[in-house]
């Protein structure tokens, strides 16, 4: 059955966090603070209709696995790269929210001296944390060696940095980046 | 009339250059030299079919104007951002190959101390140049003030940097970046 959808409603999970990040990035952009954009959803286009006198219509396409994280950009000359995820879970952050290729990409970024991190939201507590990618990797590796499949919330609280929810920008993650890397 | 197309054949213009850049970026990635990806084509999705037991099919979607350039990434910690264009023109590079929002984006990147440039290919001469965004902007501004709508090839030769076509990577633009910015 076909459904008509708005562009941004694909994943119900993550909707608000994504909107808040877009608002924040827009704030950074218009105030010359940072240039960060969300990458478009990758789509494999199979069939396109070119009607006379109107715009091309994509008639058949499929969602593709992204090869990178969703957000990247530049802040004070440095490369920023991150993924944002949320969970309804109260006591831990499930690692299956991430994909192997995203972790792999963040490792490549870190190797190239870029700034890579994740923004983790616990929706029940309404808490948002910035966790450096370097602090995420060990949990991922342990999971792959049959370890636990989530990061305990208290570890996120200890290793991550709480981002207070604001009015404008709503998620001021650059403030944390500034303290951590500059 | 509907046509079945391969993902990468939308623009005939730019096809080979895009493939060569993808190959070069793949080379950089696998050799830990740089992490640069082409952004997905932005698409406005209107209607999606979710069949039982198989992948979601996008049934109606439209091409959207990109708000940034096509390529970005990280090299030695620094943010890289560029657009690649080609022309069949022998004596000048037409500026209508660029869009206002791409120029605007590159200006924002430069303000944020990122490295922004364009890769210009003259297909007849089989010559590829890297031109810093800062050296492109004045031509764009002059055009907007009713000036000439292209950059003379000799100006590209003088202000830009010839990238010799190679075997692997095919377009070694990082070599130029290295000399210019590090
Ligand atoms: Mg994502
Ligand atoms: Mg383009």
Automatic annotation (TrEMBL), chains A, B:
What are the names of the required cofactors?
Mg(2+)
Domain of life of the native organism: Bacteria
Under the heading SUPFAM superfamilies, the entry gives: Restriction endonuclease-like
Q: Where mainly located?
A: cytoplasm
Task: Give one GO term, molecular function aspect.
Answer: magnesium ion binding
Kindly list the GO CC terms recorded for this protein.
cytoplasm
Per the record, the GO terms for biological process are: chromosome segregation; DNA recombination; DNA repair
Chain residues that bind Mg(2+): 68, 70, 83, 102
As for subcellular location, the record says: Cytoplasm
Which residues are listed under the site Transition state stabilizer?
85
Q: Which Pfam families match?
A: RecU
Among InterPro entries, the record links this protein to: Resolv_RecU (IPR004612), Restrct_endonuc-II-like (IPR011335), tRNA_endonuc-like_dom_sf (IPR011856)
Catalytic activity, as annotated: Endonucleolytic cleavage at a junction such as a reciprocal single-stranded crossover between two homologous DNA duplexes (Holliday junction)
Chain's role:
Endonuclease that resolves Holliday junction intermediates in genetic recombination. Cleaves mobile four-strand junctions by introducing symmetrical nicks in paired strands. Promotes annealing of linear ssDNA with homologous dsDNA. Required for DNA repair, homologous recombination and chromosome segregation.
Entry similarity comment: Belongs to the RecU family.
Q: What is this protein called?
A: Holliday junction resolvase RecU
Species annotation: Priestia koreensis
Q: What is the lineage of its organism?
A: Bacteria, Bacillati, Bacillota, Bacilli, Bacillales
């Amino acid at each position: 059955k076909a459904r008509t959808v708005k562009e941004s409603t694909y994943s119900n999970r993550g909707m608000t966090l994504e909107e808040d990040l877009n608002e924040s990035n827009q704030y950074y952009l218009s105030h010359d603070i940072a240039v960060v954009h969300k990458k478009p959803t990758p789509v494999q286009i199979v069939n396109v209709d070119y009607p006379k006198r109107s715009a091309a219509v994509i008639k058949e396409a499929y969602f593709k696995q992204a090869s990178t994280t969703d957000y990247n950009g530049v802040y004070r000359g440095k490369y920023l790269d991150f993924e944002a995820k949320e969970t309804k879970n109260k006591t831990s952050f499930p690692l299956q929210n991430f994909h192997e290729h995203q972790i792999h990409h963040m490792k490549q970024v870190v190797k190239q001296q870029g700034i890579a991190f994740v923004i983790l939201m616990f929706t029940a507590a309404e808490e948002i944390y910035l966790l450096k990618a370097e602090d995420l990797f060990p949990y991922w590796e342990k999971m792959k060696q049959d370890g636990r499949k989530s990061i305990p919330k208290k570890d996120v609280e200890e290793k991550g940095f709480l981002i207070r929810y604001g009015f404008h920008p709503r998620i001021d993650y650059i403030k944390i980046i500034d303290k951590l890397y500059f």
